[in-house]
Amino acid sequence: MDTQKKSRIFLNPLLKENPILVLILGLCPVLGVSETIDKAIGMGMAVILVLFCTNLVISLIRKLVPNEVRIPIYIVIIASFVTMVQMLMNAFTPELAESLGAFIPLITVNCIILGRAEAFASKNSVGDSILDALGNGFGFLIAVFLVAFFREFLATGGWKLSNPFTNSTIFEIRPLADFAIPLFGQNTGAFLTLGIIIGIVTAIRISSEQRKTLKAKKEVQ
Amino acid sequence: MKFSMSPAPFLRRKRTTLAIMLELTIALALVWLASIIYYFTIGTNHGLQAILIGVVSTVTMMLVEFLFYLPKCIKDGKEAVSKNSELNCFKETMKAMGYKLSHSFGWVSGLILALLLPVGTPLYVVVVSAIIAILVGKLLFGGFGYNIFNPAIVGRIFAQLCFGTSLAYGVEESVSDFTIFTGATVTSQLSNNNWMTTGLDIDLWKLLLGNYQGTLGETFTLLILVIGVVLAIRKVIDWKVPVFYVGTLYLASLLAGFCGGYGLGSFEYALIQISIGGIMFGAVFCLTDPVTNPTSPSGKVIFAVGAALFTFVIRYFASAPEGVAYSILLMNMLTPLIDRCIKGFTTKKLLPKWGVIGGIMLASMVLGVSSGFVNHGAYDAEYRRQNEFSSVVEKVEDNVYHVEVEQGEKGRVWSKIEMKVTLDMNNRTVTKIEVLSYGGNGGFGDALLTGGEIEFSDDFAYFGDKNKALAFYDKYIKLDSPLSFDEYLTIYGKENSIGNWSSEAKGVIRVGATYTTMGFIYGVCEVINYAGGAQ
Amino acid sequence: MKNLWENKFVRLPLSLAAVCLIFSSLLALTNFVTDPIIASMQEEKEKKAYEVLYGEGSILSRDEVSFEATDNINSITKVVTTDNVEHYVYNLSTKNVISGDFNFLAGIKDGKVDAYSFIGVENNNNYGFAEFSNGKDRLVGYDGSNFSIVSGASNTSNGFKTALDAALAHYASLSTGA
Questions:
Q1: Together in a domain, B13 and B156
Q2: I need a surface site. Which of B4, B45, B114, B315 has the fewest CB within 10 A?
Q3: Is B403 inside a domain boundary?
Q4: What is the pLDDT of residues B224-234, one digit of tens each?
Q5: pLDDT over threshold 90, residue B362
Q6: Nearest chain C Cα to B407, which residue?
């Protein structure tokens, strides 16, 4: 029972309560970094790292923090971790940091981070908070990767994956480069793709819920 | 009283929407047929391409609608079977689909989109634009009757933004009319010329009869006019919208012409303005779409006048010659607002309604007047030169002249060309040209002037065609055999101003280094004029 | 002690101060670790740019020159190349280029630009950058009066021109002034 609850903490944010596709939180970086899967994976990793650290620390000190100043303290913690991650990225993955540009410091104001800190980490144990952080972080990564997958394919006709630490290309395939639609590399395409993906995910979710209630009704009968 | 809860259009006659749409389809098919015939006269490939674009666009849209409505139709079919188990599931699904498709009128948008695209559009562009048009422009909003924007226009704008450079006006094959390839449509030529027609060989009759290059549907203006009148008489389209739209544009252009110094020629000038750029086509087929324009009559008038204002503004003050599509989209956006405002006006308060209409029309007129005044100076040949060329000619020996051409902008010299030109006055030919110095930046122009001695760097393959450049060099510069004066003079233009160059001339000089070729031709002509060789 | 903690005016500032102290020290630690790496990467890029300027291994000596800070000039060095010629190398940044500013070195001698190279920008989608990139030598020979704008990249070209004008102005002041 306990493990089931714990596993649900981790599994829920991945798809059923995905912060971006279902709860629609923190969309700004999604639009900005989903141009290529390189940027998407890099950003996802940065968000996971920041979420992990902040949830850990906040849950550790949750009993010591006075209620009135908890928001400023959370913000200081989040901002410090984001700055640390930025400095580390500038040092060890310079090309990725340059291509992500201003979106790394923008992680600070990402609703997901402050939201999880406020709603979960400040009220639950360290272990649970870590699971929650990982779940939400990977949920973010899955969502951004999904959008970037389609966007890069439509905008450039293929994909390119490279190792951020050494800037060497792992693979690059562009089967449909001649038919690329450059609009999807820009903001319009970002909105379109994101909207369509959210629509499809919501449709799947609603139909599966309907099926479940139908099944439950039949069982009752 | 029975309130009909169906979406627009609201019909008073017994005629169904389907019947109206079928008549519209026939009209569109007629325009399409006319354009196919016209393009066949240019070349078989062109005609085939015209047919293909129409077919591909329509089929794609129908296919997308089919796939989109499939899940729901399958559900309906299953439901019908569960109620009456004697029915065939597949047949029921197809029946439901047939009903859905025939009341969704996808093919109409397909034809309109095809007629909005130029003949050289690659087919995959047509497919992608059609998919986006029908999906984003219509289906996602809820299908027929629920869309805000005209789907064909959405597809056209999408094609323009994404594939703008691929929307060629010509297809690969040898053609009788060279100007097709240069992509210089009449509208872009006019817009480069500040919307004044002096010096461009645009003939009103040619325009009306559609003997010029544009998109598939916009060329045969007279036919569209006739069709528009017929459709209005048969109450398929509402007459108010196209009349007010074209009328406002005509009046505004008239005023622009008067103030631009055309005098009585303004009438013809204004007629030219409304015959190009797809205004007629947009007015008859796109603006009159009953779903996307307001329901009340005065709302429709406001819609038409507003669209005219936007078209005028976009054409004159922005660089997009095809302002019709953008203005249609903008007014589509404002349609719900117009509807809501009109509902507030009861029949007693006539003044606000007509005040709004009058205000917008007045704005258009004012814009017309002001643009006319602004371009008055442009009428003057001196001011129209955007790139000033100047030259100094000196006689070196008998029949040998040295000329230095400078090209600059507002006093800043950009590049120079120096040549020694040898003439044969008796035969009126140029026998030898020696290029002494040129721009010097190793660009395409330099390579052209030296006949490839300086390499045609690959970085300029963007703009220029190496073969065309070498052809230009061989014909005009290398002069294996002497070339007559007229070969140069006819390119240069009859008056001493670059803006007057004819479209044929522009086809010749546009090989990738237009300033260089222009400067070169200008230099040689200056020598010829100096020597008294012009006639 | 507990009473003190209960007091709001002690608790709040104390906790805030504690958190700030802890995290600023963490930040300082990270900075300490990563700064040398970042600085060395920047120096590498600049060194590479110097190499490209006049050819590899051609620079004999470099001396910093002090100057009055301007918008475009980051640093000035007096460089002597292997053929015993003195050049002034300006580390310049373009300003207000819409698609992104560039950081480049320009060597000036006798009032003319005789070489230039970019620092660290390797692949950039900017068409204007492609026109000016290393090896194109577009800016070579510019002496203040003969700039040719690349058509289609006038914003980038003007950015370069402004930066070079500042450098040339400084160079001119060197010969007339001190």
A1: yes
A2: B4
A3: yes
A4: 888 999 999 98
A5: no
A6: C148
